[in-house]
Amino acid sequence: MVPAAMPATAAKHQSLIAALGAVGLPLEPDRGELRGREGSDPVAFRFVLRDVPFSCAVERPEGQPLLTLTGDLGALSHTGEGAERRRAMEAVVAAAREGSGLDWQVTRQQILVRSGIPLTLPLTPVATTLSAVTLLLRALPFLEQLLETREGRAAP
Q1: Which of 35, 42, 93, 119 could be disulfide-bonded to 65 (CB atoms 3.0-4.6 Å)?
Q2: What is the domain-level CATH number for residue 112?
Q3: Domain residues for 125?
Q4: What is the pTM of this model?
């Protein structure tokens, strides 16, 4: 329950944290990294979610901070190794493009997911992390379905 006096931004962050907690993600912060410093270097961090490496970078392309999230879901199976599985994975990617609002790509046999989200000032670690979580929550159902399909556990 969010107290009535709590600002809208704090209530939004609390609901995102609750949603993430309900999913029970095996987020591996011990395998993560945060870098950046004052000056021209962008703030960047990496983490692993469900054995998928993700990277985030905060840049200011037009003065406004923008967080960009990229996840590398690995190789798309070769047709000779499982044409049916490949078609199923391509169908999940197509559904993800339509349903998540994120940019899902199959490039040189790699499956990538990318998206950006504007950040508000002041730029804080909590706001940056919650923005990444916002994007992850939009990708999560498709990410899980792709991983299950790749491992041959998806329902027919």
Answers
A1: 119
A2: 3.30.1460
A3: 42-150
A4: 0.70
